[in-house]
Design a protein that fits this description.
The structure holds two protein chains of two kinds. Chain A is an all-alpha fold. Chain A is 72% helix and 0% strand. Chain A is built from ten helices and no strands. By secondary structure, chain B is mainly alpha-helical. A two-stranded antiparallel sheet of chain B has the order 1-2. Classes of the chains: A mainly alpha, B mainly alpha. At the A-B interface, helix 1, helix 3, helix 4, helix 5 and helix 6 of A face helix 1, helix 4, helix 5, helix 6 and helix 9 of B.
C-alpha cells in the first residue's frame, strides 16, 4: 500500500515536470517558428518601406510607425488618469459604496472584450466627435481598454510600499498628499515603470479595439513633413492609421499583395521581437531602479 | 496674528492636501462614469433591434434565422443570433476543457513541485505568452494548425477545434496565474499537517491543497471563459465563418465576435443588420457583467468558508 502511494507520487511528480516542460517547449516552438519564417523579412527595407498595392516587395514602415505613435499617445492619456485612480484606491478609498462601485467598474472594464471597447470607440470617438477613423480615436479607445489595467498596476505598486516609509513622512509633519507625491510614488516607481512598459507592449499588439477606431487604411505618409496639422504628416494624429497588428489581420483576410503570407510572417516576427524588447526592458529597468532607490547592492 | 496664521494654514492645506485629494477622487469616480457611459452607449445601440425593428429579445436569442438582408416583400430581415451564440459557447467551452487541466497542472508545478523553476522559468514564460498579440496567435493558427487539421482529418481545416485550440493557449496564462495565486495563498500548515499524517506530496496536493484552493481556481476558470468569449480576431481567422451550428469538431462555424468583426464595417448604421451586431455587442457586455458577478459570488463563498 505504501509502496503504491509512493509510486503514484513519483508518477505525479514526473507528470507535472512533463506539463511544465511541454509548456516551455511550446513557447520555444512558437517563437522559433515565427522568427524562422519571418527571418527573410527582418531587414531594413521591409521595416522602413511603405506597403505596395498588388505587387510583392512591400514593407511595413507606416504601420510600424503608427503602432509606436499610438502607444505613446494612448499612454499619455491613460497614465495620468490610471495613476490618479490608483492613488485614490490605494491611499484614500474607505470601505464605502463609492469604493465598491469603483472596484466593480474596474473589474468589469478589465474583463470587457476589446472588440466591445472598439465599438464604444466607434460610437463616441469616431462618430460623435465627427473625426472619422483617426489615430486619436484609436488611442482613446485603447486608453479606455488599458485604464483598468493601469489603475490596478498603480494601486498594487502603491500598496506594496512599506508603511514604515509612509509613517516616517507623516511623522515629520507632511500631509497625506505630500507624502504620496514625495515619498510613496518615488518608492513605487520601479514597480510602476515595469507595469507600464508591460502594458505598452500589449497596446503595441492590440488589434480588435482598433479595427473600427484607427481604421484599416493608412494614407501615404511623407516622413519629411513634420507639421502635425498637415494631412500627410506622420505626426498628425487626426488621420486614419492602420497599426502593425491590424495590418497582419488585414493582409490575411483581404490578401491585397501577392506575398501576403511573407508579409504576415515578417510582421509577426517584428511583433514578437517587440514583445520581447518590451518584456526585457521592463524587467531590467525595474531591477535597475529598484537597486537604485533601495540603495542596496543586492 | 493667530488669525493670519490660520488663513495661511488653510491655504497651505488646500495646496498640499485638498487639491491633490480631490483630483485623485475625481479620477476614481471617473472610472464609474466611464463604465456607465460605455454601458449607456452600447445599450442605446444594442436595444435598437428590439424597440426599433420590433423584434422580441427571445427571438434574437433563440432563433437560428439569420437573413439580415432579406427583402421586405419576403418577410423583412430576420436577425436570430442563436447560431453565433451557440458558436461562441461551443468554441469557448471546448477551449476551457482543453486549457483548464493543463493550466491547473502548471499552477501546481509552479507552487507545489518546484517554486524555484516556477519563478525563474515558468513565470517569464507565462508573461511572454500573455504578451504575444492575438493576431499572432491567429496567424499561427491559420498557417500551422489549419493546414495540419486539413491534412490529418480532412475537411477545410478551418474548424471549431482550430478555434478552441487557439483560444485554449490564449486563456492558459490567465487560468494558470490566477490558480497559482490561489494555491500560494493556502497556509503552509495545511501541507505540514497532511505530511505529518504520512501523506505523500501528490496525496497532499490532491486531497488537501487543491480542494482548499478550489474557489480560487474556479475564479481563474471564469476569467478564462470571459477572455475566450470576447476574443475576436484570432478566432475569426481560424473558425471558417460559415453560418451553421457545427456537427463535429472539424466543422467550420462562426461566433459572435467574428460576425461583429466582419460585418460591422460593411453594413449601414441603423439597418436591422447593423443593429443586430450592436445587440450582440450588448450581449457580450452583459456576459462580462455576469462573469464578474459570478466571481464575486465565488469570492464570497470562499471568505465564508474561512
Amino acid at each position: 500500500m505504501k509502496i503504491k502511494s509512493r509510486t503514484t507520487d513519483k508518477a505525479a511528480t514526473a507528470f507535472f515536470y512533463m506539463v511544465a516542460g511541454a509548456f516551455v517547449f511550446l513557447l520555444l516552438l512558437f517563437v522559433g517558428y515565427i522568427l524562422y519564417h519571418g527571418r527573410e523579412r527582418l531587414n531594413l527595407h521591409f521595416i522602413f518601406s511603405a506597403p505596395t498595392f498588388m505587387k510583392p516587395g512591400g514593407g511595413i514602415g507606416p504601420q510600424l510607425f503608427n503602432s509606436l505613435y499610438l502607444v505613446v499617445l494612448s499612454m499619455l492619456i491613460t497614465v495620468p488618469i490610471g495613476l490618479s485612480a490608483g492613488i485614490y484606491m490605494a491611499e484614500y478609498a474607505k470601505p464605502s459604496p463609492l469604493t465598491r462601485g469603483i472596484r466593480f467598474c474596474i473589474e468589469t472594464l478589465a474583463s470587457l472584450p476589446s472588440i466591445v471597447i472598439g465599438l464604444f470607440g466607434l460610437l463616441v470617438f469616431v462618430n460623435a466627435t465627427g473625426w472619422g477613423y483617426t489615430l486619436m480615436s484609436g488611442a482613446l479607445a485603447v486608453a479606455v481598454l488599458n485604464l483598468p489595467v493601469i489603475t490596478t498596476i498603480s494601486e498594487d505598486a502603491i500598496r506594496n510600499v512599506p508603511s514604515s516609509i509612509k509613517e516616517a513622512s507623516l511623522a515629520l509633519g507632511a500631509t497625506h498628499w505630500q507624502t504620496i507625491c514625495r515619498v510613496i510614488i518615488p518608492s513605487a516607481l520601479p514597480a510602476l515603470i515595469t507595469g507600464l512598459i508591460m502594458t505598452a507592449g500589449r497596446v503595441f499588439g492590440e488589434a480588435a479595439a482598433l479595427l473600427y477606431t484607427a481604421g484599416m487604411s493608412s494614407p501615404a505618409l511623407d516622413f519629411s513633413d513634420l507639421n502635425p496639422f498637415s494631412y500627410k504628416s506622420p505626426l498628425n494624429p487626426f488621420r486614419p492609421a492602420e497599426t502593425l497588428a491590424v495590418y497582419i489581420w488585414k493582409v490575411n483576410s483581404e490578401g491585397i499583395a501577392p506575398d501576403s503570407r511573407q508579409i504576415a510572417d515578417g510582421a509577426s516576427a517584428i511583433l514578437i521581437i517587440a514583445v520581447f524588447i518590451f518584456n526585457i526592458v521592463s524587467r531590467f529597468l525595474g531591477r535597475y531602479l529598484n537597486t537604485k532607490f533601495s540603495g542596496t547592492t543586492k | 496674528m493667530l488669525r493670519g496664521q490660520n488663513k495661511k494654514m488653510s491655504f497651505n492645506s488646500i495646496k498640499n492636501e485638498f487639491a491633490g485629494r480631490s483630483m485623485v477622487t475625481f479620477f476614481g469616480a471617473f472610472l464609474i462614469l466611464l463604465t456607465l457611459c460605455l454601458v449607456f452607449f452600447i445599450a442605446s445601440k444594442g436595444l435598437a433591434t428590439f424597440y426599433h425593428s420590433h423584434l422580441s429579445p427571445l427571438e434574437f436569442l433563440f432563433s437560428t434565422q439569420w437573413k439580415p438582408d432579406r427583402e421586405i416583400g419576403e418577410g423583412g430581415p430576420a436577425v436570430g443570433a442563436a447560431v453565433f451564440i451557440i458558436g461562441s459557447v461551443l468554441v469557448s467551452s471546448v477551449a476551457l476543457l482543453i486549457s483548464t487541466p493543463f493550466s491547473v497542472a502548471l499552477a501546481i508545478f509552479m507552487t507545489e513541485i518546484s517554486p524555484g523553476l516556477g519563478r525563474k522559468l515558468l513565470q517569464p514564460t507565462i508573461e511572454v505568452f500573455v504578451g504575444i498579440p492575438s493576431v499572432v496567435y491567429g496567424w499561427i493558427g491559420l498557417s500551422v494548425l489549419v493546414p495540419f487539421i486539413r491534412q490529418s482529418f480532412g475537411g477545410l481545416g478551418f474548424s471549431w477545434i482550430a478555434g478552441s485550440l487557439v483560444l485554449s493557449i490564449m486563456i492558459l496564462p490567465t487560468i494558470a496565474s490566477v490558480s497559482a495565486d490561489a494555491l500560494r495563498a493556502i497556509p503552509g500548515d495545511y501541507r505540514e499537517a497532511s505530511y505529518a499524517l504520512g501523506a505523500t506530496r501528490w496525496q497532499t496536493i490532491r486531497r488537501v491543497v487543491l480542494p482548499a484552493a478550489a474557489p480560487g481556481v474556479l475564479t481563474g476558470v471564469v476569467l478564462g471563459l470571459a477572455r475566450a468569449f470576447g476574443e475576436a480576431l484570432a478566432v475569426q481567422m481560424v473558425l471558417g465563418n460559415t453560418l451553421r451550428i457545427p456537427r463535429s469538431l472539424f466543422d467550420s462555424t462562426v461566433n459572435m465576435t467574428s460576425i461583429i468583426t466582419m460585418d460591422m464595417g460593411n453594413t449601414v448604421m441603423g439597418t436591422a443588420w447593423n443593429n443586430a451586431l450592436w445587440s450582440m455587442a450588448l450581449l457580450l457586455l452583459i456576459l462580462s457583467f455576469i462573469f464578474i458577478l459570478a466571481i464575486h459570488k465565488i469570492g464570497k463563498r470562499r471568505s465564508s468558508v474561512k
